[in-house]
Amino acid sequence: MSRHNAPDTELLTRSQQKVTEPPLYRVLLLNDDFTPMEFVVELIMRVFRKNEEEATRIMLNVHTQGQGLCGVYPREIAETKMTQVNQHARNSGHPLKCRIEPN
Ligand code: TYC
Question: 24-102, what's its fold?
Answer without folding.
Answer: Ribosomal Protein L30; Chain: A, (3.30.1390)
